[in-house]
């Protein structure tokens, strides 16, 4: 057998049949759904008189529309009827259909892409499909994971399979180590800034190299999460001892003899020497610095110390026009140093950076200081929230003037009503910065938890190194 990539190996194990040497009927191990698309997918299923083939493989989670302020009143306290109905429909109908519902009042509740890894639902070697583009997150554990549309999700629910074209592959090797002041978020922002938002266009990306191997699983989840912003279909990292240690003992992970067999198999999930990719890119980990977006596209990202670019210096006319539009929307001007830009608000959370390590990273900056602007933390799951409270992180944030909220997607997309007022500028740890992402007219700067925390203290965009005493 010729040398295979990690993606090739997982793909081949899941291929039920292949048409014309390319189109593959792929077995899907897990399907992840949230309340925003549940109704549409299930209506499509019912309209064709189809049933869910194996409900135990479907995980349905309330995350996008749930309130993050006060849930003590339960569903009845959600004032917005549409949001309440979407959540209730997923939770009541999901239970009737026998799928794994993780509802708003469930102790396991959180963002799908936080909950599935932390409960061990996500495992190496799986094919995971989800009704959300950031399903790519789960590749951090050595799975193939990607977002799908409504029709595809219906097909998965009815058959546990999906027709897919054989993917093009790409490897991004990160050599060396990240500097002490740079984070996994800075790394993926650097990758997107250098390669562009189409740098991974349609490919399944494998992240490799010493700097990737040195990352914790939570950091790997951040990197794979934003593969979508690179234009990739999925991002994955070969499972290793770090992966096995993370999964051991989690509720849905194998146990006993099943664990030993699983680890033996997972150890085979590595790209063979000599395997070829459709594209290979190398990055020096030591060159990564704290980064933030300045514009309305993820490739409009620069180091915090750098000046905002001048569109006049951009030779590509479409990029030049895009930069000019971004400057106008964001209320910035060329040459302005990014870390001098005043902000109005800080959001720490999301499926990119709402995990325990992220909150530790932010709390380390915030400890003993006070926020100069309104700021809040929404842990990525209730389990993250409990663990953070057990360490006293909530007190650090509250003492610094931050709000300490409940878990959900929150101000990442604002679907639950956590939005910014028009024209307000937010330092955010989420993953998208297009116009209106955090509410109509909102201005978003995407950065790491450490930089968002430093920005809250400084009242302007800042890195942890610049935070005032
Ligand atoms: S946190 Fe944001 S990116 Fe992640 S699933 Fe929720 S809305 Fe999507």
CATH top level assignment of the domain at 292-461: Alpha Beta
Termini Cα gap: 60 Å
Estimated structural class: alpha/beta
Second CATH tier, the architecture of the domain at 292-461 = 2-Layer Sandwich
Low-confidence stretches: none
Output the CATH homologous superfamily of the domain at 292-461: Aconitase, domain 3
> Strand count, sense and closure of the main sheet?
5 strands, parallel
Provide a short characterization of the protein structure.
With 469 residues, the protein is α/β, with parallel strands linked by helices. It has helices at residues 6-14, 35-47, 81-97, 112-118, 150-159, 184-195, 210-213, 217-225, 241-247, 256-266, 317-330, 350-353, 356-366, 382-390, 393-399, 449-458, and strands spanning 15-19, 23-27, 30-34, 58-61, 100-102, 127-130, 144-147, 161-165, 169-175, 204-208, 234-236, 279-284, 291-293, 301-303, 345-348, 375-377, 403-404, 425-428, 443-446.
Fold and architecture overview:
With 469 residues, this protein is of the alpha/beta class. Among the domains are: 11-165, Aconitase, domain 3; 292-461, Aconitase, domain 3. Helix content is 33%, strand content 17%. It is built from 16 helices and 19 strands. The strands form five sheets. It has a five-stranded parallel sheet. It has a five-stranded parallel sheet with strand order 17-16-15-18-19. A hairpin with a 3-residue loop joins strand 1 and strand 2 (23-27). It starts with 5 loop residues before the first helix and ends in an 11-residue tail after the last helix. The mean pLDDT is 97. Bound molecules: iron/sulfur cluster (SF4). Iron/sulfur cluster (SF4) is lined by residues 63-64, 111, 113, 132, 134, 350-351, 409, 412-413, 430-431.
